[in-house]
Amino acid sequence: EDQVTQSPEALRLQEGESSSLNCSYTVSGLRGLFWYRQDPGKGPEFLFTLYSAGEEKEKERLKATLTKKESFLHITAPKPEDSATYLCAVQARRNTDKLIFGTGTRLQVFP
Amino acid sequence: ETGVTQTPRHLVMGMTNKKSLKCEQHLGHNAMYWYKQSAKKPLELMFVYNFKEQTENNSVPSRFSPECPNSSHLFLHLHTLQPEDSALYLCASSQGEGGRDIQYFGAGTRLSVL
After folding, report:
1. How far is B62 from chain A (nearest CA, A)?
2. What part of A 42-101 touches B (C-beta under 8 Å)?
C-alpha cells in the first residue's frame, strides 16, 4: 500500500535556527514527490516537485532533497513568516491523478 | 490569489439540508479534484475529473455528489450529511495531461454539520 509518513508532527524553532523536516514514503513506482505549504485557513501552496533520487531544489530559505525512500525539507535560518504546516505528497506512475499525502509537519518559528 | 476560487468559505448545515460547494479555476486547466481535510488526517482524495469526465471516485458515500459542467467549474452537492463529514473541503486543478502534474489548490470551504 502506498504510504507517506512525515516527522516530526510539530517543530518549534528559534528564528535563525536551521532544521530539517522528514518525509518517508512507500510507493510502487514513484512518479513525483511534492512539497506544499499550508497556512491556517488556507489551501496548500505548491513549493517543489522532485522526480528522481539525488534531485535537489531550492527556494529562498527552503531546500528539498530526495532519496529512494525519503525526502527532506531543509530550512536554513528560518524566519517567523516560515511558520506553517508543510505537507508532503507522492504520485505513483500507475495513477498520476492521485496524490497521496502525509499528515504534515506544523512548524512554528519564534523571534 | 491562487487562481482557484472556492465558495462559500464557510458553511454550516443541518443533517437534513441540501447545499452545494462551488469551485472555479482560472488557470486553463483540464483536471479538477475534490479533497477532504480533517484534523490530524492526511488530505483524502474524493473525486477527479479529467476533461469533464469523472476518472476517480475514491469510495465516497453517495451523500456527496460531484458535478463538472465544464473544465473551469466543479461542484460538490451535499445532502443528508453526518456530523463526521465536518471538515475542510478543498478543490484543486491541474493541467490534466497526467505525468508530472502539479495540483493547485483553492482556499477551501470549512463545513460544519450540526
Report:
1. 20
2. 42-46, 49, 51, 87, 89, 91, 95-101
Per-residue pLDDT band at B100 (split at 50, 70, 90): low
Q: Is pLDDT at A14 greater than 60 in this prediction?
A: yes
Is the predicted pLDDT of residue B98 greater than 80, yes or no?
no
pLDDT of residue B51: 82
Q: Residue B71's CB: how many other CB atoms inside 10 A?
A: 18
Cβ contact B56:B67 at 8 Å: no
- CA nearest A94 in B: which residue? B99
- Answer yes or no: are the C-beta atoms of A42 and A99 closer than 8 Å: no
Neighbours of A14 (CB within 10 A): 9
CB-based contacts of A104, cutoff 8 Å, min separation 6: A6, A38, A85, A86, A87, A88, B42
**Per-residue pLDDT at B97:** 67
Give the confidence band of B40 by pLDDT, cuts at 50, 70, 90: confident
In SS3 terms, chain B reads as CCCEEEECCEEEECCCCEEEEEEEECCCCCEEEEEEECCCCCCEEEEEEECCEEEEECCCCCCEEEEEEECCEEEEEEECCCHHHCEEEEEEEECCCCCCCCCEECCCEEEEEC
Chain B residues whose C-beta sits inside 8 Å of any chain A C-beta = 2, 4, 6, 31, 33, 40-43, 45, 48, 50, 55-56, 90, 92, 98-108, 110
